[in-house]
Design goal:
The chain has 2 domains: 118 residues, Roll (CBS-domain); 73 residues, ACT domain (Alpha-Beta Plaits), CATH 3.30.70.260. It is 34% helix and 30% strand. It has 8 helices and 8 strands, in the order H-H-E-E-H-H-H-E-E-H-E-H-E-E-H-E. A hairpin with a 2-residue loop joins strand 1 and strand 2.
Length: 200
């Protein structure tokens, strides 16, 4: 999945000459926490609700402009950036969102909420599902073998998450389409596969 598929394209912007109070009102009106700062059609900065809170003294709101507090060189992504890379940037730089640039052109905004929604969809977390937690030998091919066993027993795998490896064994979390897990568990146990937890 790419940033361009989940970004907000209807982007509210503000100019650097505007007062921070105006930026705050625009954020409140649109229900957003990030604003690209645009001058003469080019993005020149990025401002967040946190930036505004740091200068939120009523007596100063009319004196401070957006240009005074904006980030002049924000972290950006392109529409072709993967959501995984965008998420890594958010975590590494401890930011809540980024402008999406196509060359020098602002084409969208992506936020942490957009990324969470994307990963939720990718992992099938909102779908009705069952879960099997297995502990397997940390060796090549074991995941594929366990997945095939689950399929042969009638389970339809939505996704698999990897857990930590300890003493040569690794936890795997299988999310399946909602089903009766008992027959699958019986087959797994007959093959010597350790079932740690099952959530029907």
């Amino acid at each position: 999945m790419l940033v361009g598929q989940i970004m907000t394209k209807d982007v509210a912007t503000i100019s650097p000459e505007k007062q921070v109070g105006q930026a705050l009102k625009l954020m409140q009106k649109r229900g957003i926490r990030h604003l690209p700062v645009v001058s003469q059609g080019a993005m020149v900065g990025w401002i967040t609700s946190r930036d505004l809170r740091e200068v939120l003294l009523a007596s100063m709101l009319e004196k401070i402009t957006v240009g005074d507090v904006m980030v002049q060189a924000p972290i950006t992504v392109s529409p072709n950036t993967s959501v995984e890379e965008a998420a890594r940037l958010v975590v590494d730089h401890k930011i809540g969102g980024m402008p999406v640039m196509e060359g020098e052109k602002l084409v969208g905004v992506i936020t942490m909420l957009d990324l969470i929604a994307a990963f939720t969809a990718m992992l099938g977390l909102l779908r009705s599902s069952s879960r099997l937690d297995l502990r397997l030998e940390d060796q090549p091919g074991v995941l594929e073998a366990a997945t095939e066993t689950i399929k042969q027993a009638g389970g339809k795998v939505i996704n698999v998450a990897l857990g930590p490896s300890q003493k040569g064994r690794r936890s795997y979390y299988f999310r399946l389409e909602k089903c009766d897990l008992k027959p699958i568990i019986n087959v797994l146990k007959k093959q010597g596969i350790e079932v740690v937890e099952a959530i029907p």
